Amino acid sequence: MRTQNRFLIIPLICIMICSGYSAISQVLKTQTINRGVVNELQMDSSGFWIYNISNEDLEIYSVLTAPVYGDTVLSIHLTDSIISIGDSSFISVMFLPRHNIEHILPLILTTSHDEGAFALDFEAQVQYSNVYYSSTQNLTEGNLRSTLNNIISTNHSVLSYSVARDNMYGTLDNHGGMVECVYTGRSASFNTRAGAVANNINCEHTFPQSKFNSAPPMKNDIHHLFPSDQSANSSRSNHPFGVVTGTPNWSVGGSKRQGSLFEPRDDHKGDCARAMLYFVLRYGDYSNFFAPQESILRDWHFNHPPDSLDLYRNNGISALQNNRNPFVDYPQFLDRITSLVGPTSTSPDTDFIISEDTINLVHRSGGGQAMRRFIIANSGNVPLLFSNMNISNSGLNILNGGSPKSLEPGEHFEVTIDYNSSNIYSQDSLTFLSTSSSGFSSVKIPIRSKTKLELEEEPWTPEDMITIIDGGIRVFALSGKEKLELVDTQGRIIARKELNQSPSSAIDWLISVPKMGWLRIIRDGQTTICKFAQPL
Q1: How far apart are alpha carbons 245 and 260 in whole angstroms?
Q2: Which of 20, 156, 260, 523 is most buried (most C-beta within 10 Å)?
Q3: Domain 453-533 has CATH 2.60.40
Q4: What is the DSSP string of 63-89?
Q5: How far apart are the two ends of the chain, measured CA to CA in Å?
Q6: pLDDT attached to residue 479
Q7: E-assigned strands of 242-355?
């Protein structure tokens, strides 16, 4: 037996996790960040303090939050992820909203604290800086669609077709005296209708006028009118838009047609899509022309966002017609309208966030009663009911959060587990039901013990499995296919090594070894944790 090096071997399946309850008011002095009313142009900055009142360094592993229509709107910056004993750290929160809706979002901090994770709420009401859309605040789906229709229809000044084309050729699509065909990219120098005729340029109706019998105000609405080369205009005809995959019958400047399908060049895909979206929002879907194209037009809208020229054009048309294209000003409106034609409703998203996928209870030799906090947040878009909280081991008690809890999107709650930290838990679990209007799911979270090293604990040597050598650590009796992890006393993995060799009586891992720590030996899905201490 090698007595100069002391270690403890503990068979254990171990995953680093966090949760907690009783220290929350001391660690986090606030439970809510409420920013009041902000607009989308503000890079709103706030934050909160986290205090380390424990007897060991506190490490923040991650900050979890929920998306808003697929976007992460909270940006988190940690001054220092490790907070020394008795110290504190400020965590800044940058809010970058896109939608003029009420935001309720969780902030879940996973930490090395014995009680685990900590959570607080972020709240803000966003209003758009463009007051033209003030009545759309907090609206979605049919309500948003009808409100936008009302906005762009009210006070809409209908121009004559001649005036519409005069302004299109003269200013809206005239840049430095040049007018460019939206489909081919061919440019010509003119600024009048006569000049357009002389240069074989037509007025393209993105939503074909044959579908609505060339009637005003649709025919005259500049939001869907663009200059087009005569041949390109003829080739497009009244064909629907789509992606050409075979050999095209016509192709110029990146635009192409195959049979009755027309694909505009990339430079015009976004503008074309937003013109179609505007037209259907304003007037409806004549001859069911739009509905079969809606999916691809949505893709083009999001993949080719508006640029400064699009905003210039929208502003110019607004000065002439007294209405705007909402999808140029705020492309994200389309996130909140599932369909522009017929019934529209949000597909239910029943996702939720948990602070850990395994609840790791702290094990300390000779320890007593302790608490662990497990946090659940609704990251979907529909209310969720969490119920039937149950723990398989009668020695584990749910102190808080065991009753059924209904969460609105963005809300969170905490489940607090009371346990004896001197025991080792390895085959236990927390189960619960998550229920929404679309059904329910059963969730099972494993519960395991994570041994926490005490610096003052006297290490000892029950058997020869590892030993400290000059310049590293020696591991005995390995198959040669193990994974090795060197872990410090705070549970941080400081090095990894994956073996791929023949069995050996001893393998030397040359690495800087801390004074105390663990060596995890992972073999066939099982983990052996060897505690070691270098000789004094």
Answers
A1: 13
A2: 20
A3: yes
A4: EE---BTTB--EEEEES-SEE-TT-EE
A5: 18
A6: 85
A7: 250-252, 255-258, 261-263, 352-354
